Amino acid sequence: MAIERRWLRVTEAGEYLGLHQKSVYRACSERRIPFCKIAGIGVRIDKHELDLLLESNGMSPRGFGKRLKEKHGDDRK
Questions:
Q1: Which residue ranges form the domains of the chain, and what is each CATH number?
Q2: Taking the C-alpha atoms of 17, 56, 37 and 21 in order, what is their torsion angle to the nearest 10 degrees?
C-alpha cells in the first residue's frame, strides 16, 4: 500500500493542479492556496488543506488550476 504524502513540493503541486511552478508560487504569494515556508527547505503546499479548498469550491484540481490560468495566465508552454 502506497503512503500519500501530505506536504507537496511546488513542482508536485503544479503537476496536481496543471500549473507551471511559477504560477504556483504566484498563487501562494496571493494567498490563493494554502502553503508553508520552511526555513532551509522552501515552500510546501498542504495537500489536505488544498483538497478541502477545492471541495468547498466544488472544483477539481485541474479545474482550479484552469481558473487560476484564466485569471493570471500561465507560464507553461
A1: 7-72 (1.10.1660)
A2: 10
42 by Cβ neighbours in 10 Å (0-12 / 13-18 / 19+) ranks as: exposed
Q: In angstroms, rounded to a whole number, what is the distance separating the alpha carbons of residues 34 and 24?
A: 11
Report pLDDT digits (tens) over 21-56: 999 999 999 999 999 999 999 999 999 999 999 999
CB 33 within 8 A of CB 45: yes
- The C-alpha cell 520552511 sits at 38
Stated pTM of the model: 0.79
Cα–Cα distance, 72 to 11 (Å, whole number):
18
